[in-house]
Amino acid sequence: MKLSLQKAHRLFKDNLPSYSASVDEVRQLTADKMWGTLPIASDLITEEVDIDGMKGEWQIVPESQEDRVLLYLHGGGFMFGSIATHRGESSELGRAAKARTLAINYRLAPEHPFPAPIDDALKAYSWLLDQGYPAKHIMIAGDSAGGNLTAAVLMRIRDTLTPLPAGGVMISPWIDLGLTGETYITKEAVDPVNTKEAIQKLADNYLNGVSPAVPYASPMYGDLRGLPPIYVMVGEAEIMLSESLTFVTRAALAGVDIRFRSWPAMIHNWLCCHSFLEEAREGIDSAGAFMNELYTKHE
């Protein structure tokens, strides 16, 4: 294993807390010891915004075009993570897309279980429309639980007859909260980030008694017809691999313009390691190319 990938493994294996710790301890430890060690570009400008009582942040780099927006939904199992923890990844995705990134602090479980994060993400999208951004100039992206939210929000936007965005990017999406995929067993020995036991606890926190088969909770089970183009990106060393394959197949059968790419040996949300891992930088650029294609189509 090359040194940069070993470093990515250590980032998670050495710093992920035990889920037997308190919620506050898990949030603090992941923020400080894991994501807090990742660098932020020196040319990034941030601007805090209030979205009807929810904290948002504009992330602007020299490449950002005024009329392009990336709405970014961070991961963290619906229990931890924030604008700050994912600032490096979200802003670099915006740079690759030549867009302004809007990141949000959606409400977290267990204090705010399903469907609170979906409601908050939809509120942010509606706020962007109210600010005058055309729907087709907006992309929605997220990693892990944020990949779940990306799909769920696209479904909600469609179901409420709100104008659809240009498309979505789902990075290592966690979209089957029933954990039924075969790779929860076959990949557990090689995934340095997630275990089925830990993911089950996060699912229970978020669902709060709701069935994991509810489509907005587990978009893998959703009606995907009529959704905009979606790019699904996944590492081949992660336990969530099989649900992405199922989602992509179902989306294709539903007539969605679905793009898919898997990266050999890559771990869950490897894109956060873009500062030192070549495949992560490649992933950022690949997502940027997809978003640029859709932005250009609607300009």
TrEMBL record:
Domain Alpha/beta hydrolase fold-3: 70-271
Active-site positions on this chain: S144
GO MF term (any one): hydrolase activity
Protein's UniProt name: Alpha/beta hydrolase
Keyword terms, alphabetized: Hydrolase
Family: Belongs to the 'GDXG' lipolytic enzyme family.
InterPro entries xref list: AB_hydrolase_3 (IPR013094), AB_hydrolase_fold (IPR029058), GDXG_lipolytic_enzyme (IPR050300), Lipase_GDXG_HIS_AS (IPR002168), Lipase_GDXG_put_SER_AS (IPR033140)
